[in-house]
Design goal:
alpha/beta, 332 residues, 45% helix, Rossmann fold, 2 domains
């Protein structure tokens, strides 16, 4: 059984309600069909019922078991608008503005999660990351004890002996552009927790750089070195090391050669990139040249499960993220 199939089996053990607001996109409807057919989540579709059903029928997709909610007709819209106003009035929100925003599918879906009428949300196939995360942060807020919301990709590399049999978490590859050393600490800790939650194995965190253990010196390497030292002090239970080059982090022979005293070198399964440039390039190289499955950008640090998508995602990618979101909701 491959990794994502295992996730789907876990999701089936405690079925959760996942809301999908991007119902004008065929990929979303196909993903709903997959999730319902395989039975690992209840699906809530936000939008015009006639349009959604027409799109499904034209493409021979079965969404008969999905719940469809139209924000323009829902009895909940008034209550949701009032709740949004109460949440944001100190930030200048007016009731009129809240009433207008709640007509938006993503805002409406996010309020369903807030009101515990859905357990998680998946969006991003046609919306930008900011259009998905802005309502999440406004409505759901950050999780207790979390200082920074960040994003990670779950990477599944076929026929790969590195990482956890080819499974990695890459962070942050989707949100924080140029994190400080302190922010890298939070990204690394959240990514470690995400790996253990989803993979069920101990995370081994590598703080990546173009340098290994002082082989080069610059402001770039100093940031990673400082972050590593802070992590070891703040989270002594974590298995983490840096700064490490990518091959030093994941290839056992290179790790032994370049960082013989490291408890991570050559065995890392959770890779923390120093900035968004490196992270985005790294995950896309792995996806395209390594033929890896890339699920994300998945979000960590939000009070309830909300996951973004790459706008280049397939329906199978969305179906996988639905399963991941359901498993995250089980943990909540």
């Amino acid at each position: 059984m491959n990794f994502i199939e295992n996730i789907k089996q876990r999701a089936k053990k405690d079925i959760k309600r996942i809301v999908l607001p991007e119902t004008s996109d065929l990929r979303t409807i196909k993903a709903a069909d997959i999730a319902l057919k395989e039975g690992y989540a209840e699906i809530i579709l936000i939008g015009n019922e006639d349009s959604i059903k027409k799109l499904a029928e034209e493409n021979k997709l079965d969404i008969s078991k999905a719940t469809i909610v139209n924000p323009l007709k829902s009895e909940k819209s008034k209550t949701y608008a009032e709740k949004l106003y109460e949440l944001r009035k100190e930030k200048g929100m007016t009731l009129e503005k809240a009433q207008e925003l709640i007509k938006d599918e993503v805002y409406f879906a996010m309020m369903m999660v807030k009101q515990e009428e859905a357990d998680g949300l998946v969006s991003g196939a046609i919306h930008s990351t900011s259009d998905t995360l802005r309502p999440a942060l406004q409505i759901l807020k950050t999780a207790d004890g979390t200082k920074l919301v960040s994003a990670f990709f779950l990477m599944i590399v076929p026929n790969c002996e590195y990482g956890e049999d080819g499974v990695f978490v890459f962070g942050d590859c989707g949100l924080n552009q140029n994190p400080t050393a302190e922010e890298l600490v939070e990204i690394a800790h959240s990514s470690s927790e995400s790996f253990e939650q989803l993979v069920g194995k101990e995370s081994k965190v590598a703080m990546l750089s173009y340098s290994t253990k002082g082989s080069a010196r610059s402001e770039l390497t100093e940031k990673v070195i400082n972050a590593t030292n802070m992590i070891k002090e703040k989270y002594p239970e974590m298995k983490v090391d840096g700064e490490l080059q990518l091959d030093t982090a994941i290839v056992p022979t290179v790790g032994k050669s370049k960082a013989p005293d490291s408890n991570i070198a050559g065995t890392a399964n959770t890779l923390i990139f120093p900035n968004l440039d490196a992270g985005n390039i790294g995950y896309k190289l792995t996806q395209r040249l390594g033929k890896a499955e890339a699920y994300g950008p998945l979000c960590q640090g939000i009070a309830k499960p909300v996951n973004d998508l790459s706008r280049g995602c397939s329906s199978q990618d969305i179906a996988g993220v639905i399963a991941i979101t359901a498993v995250q909701a089980q943990q909540k």
